[in-house]
Amino acid sequence: MKRRDMIIRALQAGALLTLPRPLQLFANEKRNPILTEVTGNGNPLRFPTVFTNGGTMTLGLSNVQVWPSQNTQVIAVNGSYPGPSVVIEKGQTFIANFINNLTENATTHWHGLSTPELMDGHPKDPILPGNSFTYTFPVTNRGGTYFYHAHADMATAKQVYKGFAGFFIVVDPSENFNLPAGQYDVPLCIQDHRISDIPNFNYNPGTYENNWGYLGDTVLVNGTPDAYFEVGRTLYRFRLLNGSNARVYKIAFSDNRSFHIIATDGGLKDNPVQATQFMLSPGERVEILVDFSSNTIGQNVTLQSLAFSHSGTLPYKQGIALDIIRFDVVNNNSSGGIVPAAFNPISYYDPANAIVPPRTFILSMQSQHPMHRINGFTFEINRIDFEPRLHDLEKWRIINQTADFHPMHTHEAQWQVYSRNGNTNLPPNDKGWKDTVMLNPGETVEVLVKFTEHKGIYLFHCHNLEHEDDGMMMNFKILDPIGIQQIGTAVPETFALHQNYPNPFNPSTKIKFDISTVERSSKNVSIKVFDVSGKQVTDLYNGDLNPGSYEVDFDGSKLSSGIYFCRLVTGNFSDTIKLVLSK
Questions:
Q1: What is the pLDDT of residue 86?
Q2: Domain 351-478 is in which class?
Q3: Is 392 helix (H, G, I), strand (E, B) or coil?
């Protein structure tokens, strides 16, 4: 059975298909009443429906039973809270006809996924009330746990808090590591709400919430309050998604058991890493393997958020201890899964290859009014704040000058966390492919990012959704790479790298070179630029070229004045010229 089919069958098993009960359950073993009495009270973990690719996603208000025998009005997709789970294989084309039946604008952002500009769900591309739009894009991302959620201008936080979000799980058939599958592969969307509002999802932020984010004091998992999940004495894979507006969780088990972290936002790590706790901020995903084989039938263990200190003020506070979900051990069934020794290796970026200087983003908050800013600016929907180029490796230095957490998220690419306060020895939930990284108060984090798929306008923002709606967001526009052009049709007789023109230059110059038939033994051509210390500052071209005369543009607008060297290499042939940048 294909891995995608196993996940879908697990989500559909025992489904309650009739409305108005849109949430579905896993098919649990028939429970022994004595064991149920031993393990305690609560509500069985729910699972949303599975979206059929090519179908319709209708957004609207729905009444669902979040708490038993009580109706809660939510913003649902196809009547489901959380929204239907998308399960799709890498390489397939995702298609969804999205209908907005709300009385306000809506967009859907496919968080962590690489999509063309018009498919990204940018707030500049709203779906007006009563209108529809077809989202369609090829799924090129690695296998992993992604999700979708609201992204309307100034309404993201409210719409997500009221239910507009769902899983988007990408399955890569080539990733076969004998991990737990089917009913042993369990997605868990963690969200906090307020006990005082039960059964409603009231959203009425004041100054406190605009400052620290909209926080609750009870946890729903897949929309289930006081959730429990029945497990066997075997290995499970749990996909943890922090779907909260602002709550940061310190994930651990009530018995302090160890588990293995196997994946981050963008899929599997290099290898499993054993841990007993980790931090999970809004928008982040972490996958873990948990073994219940040492438990006896009738025992239970609770996934918790441990208490930690934070500067926020009452009545709702960051860092309080919370129970998330209880696991009841009820049978001896086996998943057949293992903890692999390693996964496919990840090619980590070399910071020496990043263009210089790095981009710097300073996170701040205006004291007299809690307007959250990046580099002193609040979000303007029509303003472009910076312009990276396709295939350029960039280092982004993000500096948190506030007393709060900021989970920073980029659209359109997965990045790699490089350092925290200059320390490259990172926690295991940082290492790997990421699209969201949490900055602690006063912390500086560096990430390495390269946009390789699409051009256009995308977003960089804080995933504390109140901070995002309050202005902590920027537009960036991905541009074409510096181009390489063939000049004429004649084949040159010699290999040569010609002096650039103009030289000196400011800020750009053209570099001409000839590849003759002598170099046909190796068609690969690389053109790199180095500073006087020998450090590479950019890679102008790296690929195959037929014999011919070519010209490439070099943009030095991000470099300091000085002397640089351009080196052309193909096969056993190389040549170097001196470039003079004068600003």
A1: 97
A2: mainly beta
A3: coil
